[in-house]
């Protein structure tokens, strides 16, 4: 959009301090494993008082179960933090294919500023006042995308896939409600939208994990050749821990966890889900 953009990566030659100097916006797209470390580094750097942090990471912290925006906000309480999340497969965006996303913050002005900066004829940006809901949508759908990959890898058909994705959304809503997110957020772009994109695209790394494991590969074999991070693997572990603590029913996540741990095969995971007690659609 004609803005001055500076890019930093740990492999590059430019210092983090030089890149962040007087930045209006700092956008972090680091994978979850690196967020706390980078936050610590930035805390010691001089920043403009007006800097807005934007986080695009879709994961949960293994130690605290915090979301990335909670980590950023905890470290920078005087700066606005905006979550950017939506059906945004980067390979498609790189080709200038059209996409939409959501920018969510408790600070409406900051969200609107970020919306202005990022909106273009190829990238439609909506604001939203529910950052935790938007962030959890993008994070939890990764677990469902692993399950969807298994479903397609086992050639279970369109009925099974529709059932899985729909019950996956119900599970996401249940977790979100327990964490204080708004239910309607999960029916928007960052919830259902991202769920549909990720569960239906071979471009998704999380989908690839499930698809390739259904084809007989181990998790280690899949991850060895995966381009980039499949956050759902780590998120699944964190969520299992948090769901136990908070007593939230997460049947699909439990089966994905068992699969990733090598405790059940893809077919056994399917059997477990199909043979659960029959119940009302409104019950978990
Ligand atoms: N790729 C996508 O389509 C997409 C779209 C939306 C959101 N996301 C989210 O963005 C995040 C990154 O995704 P990606 O596809 O770019 O993953 P990636 O694995 O390709 O890149 C992650 C980057 O984080 C860096 N990193 C990790 N730990 C670090 C540390 N301690 N210090 C500095 N840098 C560190 C790595 O060097 C790497 O450049 C993920 O949370 C992902 O869910 C990805
Ligand atoms: O490749 P994935 O599975 O990390 O998905 C990328 C984005 O989150 C899709 O919105």
UniProtKB/TrEMBL annotation:
GO terms for molecular function: glycerol-3-phosphate dehydrogenase [NAD(P)+] activity; NAD binding. This is Glycerol-3-phosphate dehydrogenase [NAD(P)+]. Gene3D superfamilies: N-(1-d-carboxylethyl)-l-norvaline Dehydrogenase, domain 2, NAD(P)-binding Rossmann-like Domain. GO terms for cellular component: cytosol. It comes from Anabaenopsis elenkinii CCIBt3563. The active site is at residue 141. Substrate binds at residues 58, 205-206. One of its GO terms (biological process) is phospholipid biosynthetic process.
């Amino acid at each position: 959009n004609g803005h001055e953009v500076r890019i930093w990566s740990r492999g590059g030659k430019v210092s983090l301090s030089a890149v962040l100097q007087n930045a209006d916006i700092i956008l972090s797209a680091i994978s979850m494993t690196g967020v706390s470390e980078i936050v610590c580094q930035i805390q010691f750097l001089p920043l403009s008082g007006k800097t807005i942090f934007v986080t695009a990471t879709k994961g949960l912290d293994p130690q605290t179960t915090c979301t990335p925006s909670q980590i950023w906000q905890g470290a920078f309480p005087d700066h606005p933090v905006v979550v950017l999340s939506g059906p945004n497969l980067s390979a498609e965006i790189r080709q200038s294919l059209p996409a939409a996303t959501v920018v969510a913050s408790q600070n409406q002005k900051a969200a609107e500023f970020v919306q202005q900066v990022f909106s273009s004829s190829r990238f439609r940006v909506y604001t939203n006042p529910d950052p935790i809901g938007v962030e959890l949508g993008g994070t939890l759908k990764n677990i469902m995308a692993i399950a969807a990959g298994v479903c397609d890898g086992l050639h279970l058909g369109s009925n099974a896939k529709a059932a899985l994705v729909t019950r996956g959304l119900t599970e996401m809503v249940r977790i979100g409600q327990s964490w204080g997110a708004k239910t309607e957020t999960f029916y928007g772009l960052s919830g259902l939208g991202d769920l549909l994109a990720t569960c239906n695209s071979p471009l998704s790394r999380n989908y690839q994990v499930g698809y390739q494991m259904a084809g007989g590969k181990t998790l280690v074999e899949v991850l060895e050749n995966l381009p980039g991070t499949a956050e759902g693997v780590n998120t699944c572990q964190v969520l299992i821990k948090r769901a136990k603590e908070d007593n939230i029913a997460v049947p699909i996540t439990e089966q994905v966890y068992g699969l990733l741990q090598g405790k059940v095969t893809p077919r056994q995971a399917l059997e477990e889900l199909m043979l659960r007690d029959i119940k009302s659609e409104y019950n978990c």
